[in-house]
Amino acid sequence: MSSSNNSKVLTLENMNSAVIKLEYAVRGPLVIRAGEIQKELQQKISKPFKDVIKANIGDCHAMGQKPITFLRQVLALATLPELLDSPDYPEDAKSRARILLENCLGYSIGSYTESVGLEIIRKHAAEYIEKRDGIPSNYEDILLFPGASSGIKNILKLLNAKIDGKSPGVMIPIPQYPLYSASVTEFNMVQIGYYLNESRNWSLEIEELERAINEAKKTCFPRILVIINPGNPTGQVLTKENIEEVIKFAYREKLFLFADEVYQDNVYAEGCKFFSFKKVMFEMGPPYSQMELASFMSCSKGYMGECGLRGAYAEVVNMDPKVKTMLFKLVSASLCPSVHGQIALDCVVKPPMPGEESYDLFIKEKTAVLSSLAERAKMVADTLNNIPSITCNPVQGAMYAFPKLLENTGICIVPGAGFGQEPGTYHFRTTILPQMTRLKEMLTRFEQFHLKFLHEYQ
Amino acid sequence: MSSSNNSKVLTLENMNSAVIKLEYAVRGPLVIRAGEIQKELQQKISKPFKDVIKANIGDCHAMGQKPITFLRQVLALATLPELLDSPDYPEDAKSRARILLENCLGYSIGSYTESVGLEIIRKHAAEYIEKRDGIPSNYEDILLFPGASSGIKNILKLLNAKIDGKSPGVMIPIPQYPLYSASVTEFNMVQIGYYLNESRNWSLEIEELERAINEAKKTCFPRILVIINPGNPTGQVLTKENIEEVIKFAYREKLFLFADEVYQDNVYAEGCKFFSFKKVMFEMGPPYSQMELASFMSCSKGYMGECGLRGAYAEVVNMDPKVKTMLFKLVSASLCPSVHGQIALDCVVKPPMPGEESYDLFIKEKTAVLSSLAERAKMVADTLNNIPSITCNPVQGAMYAFPKLLENTGICIVPGAGFGQEPGTYHFRTTILPQMTRLKEMLTRFEQFHLKFLHEYQ
């Protein structure tokens, strides 16, 4: 084969086309432009605003949320074990760090753990799930991952096989979190979008699931149903009855359920309550309690918001043991998740208990974060609804509002197209994470721009 | 579609067959059995030995290696910023933690970073490479990953496209590190094995590369040449002349070079020196200096051995800018690498400098680890060569010996088949990581078993 100086071995023309196709709006061109504008502001280039307010990504600490002290203390103690002799740390944090270190080879977080994570943390996660649901959980069904995204991609990969010559179809909500569309594209699977009903507070309607799957069956073999509850970017919290209907639908259609439940601690609205898919499935009894399900939880969201630490778990329920062996083998080629991320997750699934030294501070910090988020959730929806030609459903849970409008600018949010929206509607996703004063400033800026826009073009 | 209670949605028959095919020997069935034996020993089940010596994986801290103090201090300070006010930490560690925190949104390692890692750490990595090679390095070519494996898989994925209807071929050394065979299988790419010449100390011979590629061209389209230098599992260090020949071969064949250089600090043998592929390529001048290359470095190996922290970088040299944009987009869907892993890598690429408070201790710790590894490297090869019917090349670098023999048991090492070996030869890979007394015990146990075996079957 001949070669010339100017031609590259790898070009846009001969690279993996799936990678070219994939889109990830949360970190897309608007966010890159926001970064440029920030640099321009630092260089004193004049703009109609003094700073960029980033409400594009669910990044709690970036927006001023403080970490949970107990979690950070355990991490520091495990990192620098000489601190275990210091009187400056609570006994429960020290004893937690000691137990975790005893489970690390060589008493060091610098050792590899099992590929699916430390057994003791998987056991703590199983206890957490049992306590949450009142349903048994087996630690052997739990795998730790460096972020829920990694867990979702690994389990999705298992299902990536043609059946009857047809590509596997993945049902994902529209609007959805773009990880799903990106991964489905990357793996050359087929996306089956089902619309959430905005006029009924982003409810998940069975007729729409049926419409979507029947249409999809012409071109692919539907295998997976993804549910995001509480919703991202839409912030709704599913009722138990709604979950039951969805489970029955998945059973009829022989779908593998993916329950993205990373916002399970983020439920704000009166009368709303989080129900895990697993709990509902088991309470329905056979045959539903025998269905296959993967549920995902992360330490990036909730009240802890530790996005940078990359700690998460997946629970795989009723998975064929032979398939589970293959899943364990697949993750082994990634060696192991970050031990710091694993430790952070341990503190989330086994927080300080009443009577322990760190308990009071922990509850104080957790409550402060969650009540502040609840307040901001209400304020954002109320304010947006007071702006002409914008409507916004209540933010029942998660960290986002997804209002319907005509156009936007200035503030770093994510256009609705990145999550999917019904044709002819225009949305953006904003987090509710900027602290209250910043959030008010952002909404004021937004309102002024929007009113000017309406004035000019209406 | 009908469904029955007993049938699973996902089975071995209808799952992704590439996942079934992939093998990852370092964590395969032997390692699982070793874990079982350890549990049995804890339960006082009688065995002909009292403990399991794990020499199957390059897990330094698990084998008693101590972490570098500076690195752990910076991590603890960044995790718990209140420690920045304490007089108990050296000023350079505190100032490093402060600088890194200033580059984290919200002054917290709990925030997401850019998907390719913090810009400041990428800049430090570029400075490290420049200093190492005397060749310019652009931080915009550097991406941080949670482990070199993740970087390798992401870049491999870019090249996964059929050309002229043929699947892409990946040339990997035999013996090789099984990440490569596992990833090539997972991605449905084609493995092109080229044998290293054991009789010439695992040298990489151009005639063998040519034989392998010519044979492969009948069935696939060769696109990538993977080199592991220093070698894993074979421990050889390539000479500059050998690297030049390899580069010329890759140029003739229009291959994208993958230089796995994670053991660049682990060079022990007299007269051996590490040369990066990038340095050699640039010193050769055009057209070689314009070739596309990805080089990988990790904080899991070297003198730091921080496997559990998951910190690594890839430098992509001469990559088409449009392709690089696609690579950045691809990694953005994984959000970001662990910030702790990024910080660990920062300490590796920018260690304490002469005159700084931590310098003396750092050099003492680094030297102690590397000289102890050098001693163990020599001892392992010498001892193995003194056992009848076993031969072992000198361990010039990395952390492994790959001796040729007839059979083995008892000690947890990895059979040669997991790395690939010439038909009719039998090897195992052992790390040189157990501390000296344990390593001697292991070799004695091994020798006794082996002599007994020869006595019975010869």
Explain what this protein looks like in three dimensions.
The structure is a homodimer of 458-residue chains. Chain A is an alpha/beta fold and 458 residues long. Chain A folds into 2 domains: 17-65 and 370-457, Aspartate Aminotransferase, domain 1 (Alpha-Beta Complex), CATH 3.90.1150.10; 102-349, 3-Layer(aba) Sandwich (Aspartate Aminotransferase, domain 2), CATH 3.40.640.10. Helices cover 40% and strands 11% of the residues of chain A. The first copy, chain A, has 14 helices and 10 strands. Chain A has helices spanning 17-21, 29-42, 69-79, 91-102, 119-133, 148-158, 178-186, 206-216, 240-252, 277-284, 321-332, 339-349, 359-385, 436-457; strands at residues 142-145, 168-174, 190-195, 221-228, 256-260, 293-298, 312-317, 400-401, 414-415, 428-431. In chain A, the strands form 2 sheets. The first copy, chain A, has a 7-stranded mixed sheet with strand order 1-7-6-5-4-2-3, sandwiched between helices. Chain A starts with 16 loop residues before the first helix and ends with a helix. The model of chain A is unreliable at 1-5 (pLDDT under 50). Chains A and B meet through helix 1, helix 3, helix 6, helix 7 and helix 11 of A and helix 1, helix 3, helix 6, helix 7 and helix 11 of B.
Task: Kindly summarize this structure in a few lines.
The structure is a homodimer of 458-residue chains. Chain A is α/β, with parallel strands linked by helices and 458 residues long. Helices cover 40% and strands 11% of the residues of chain A.
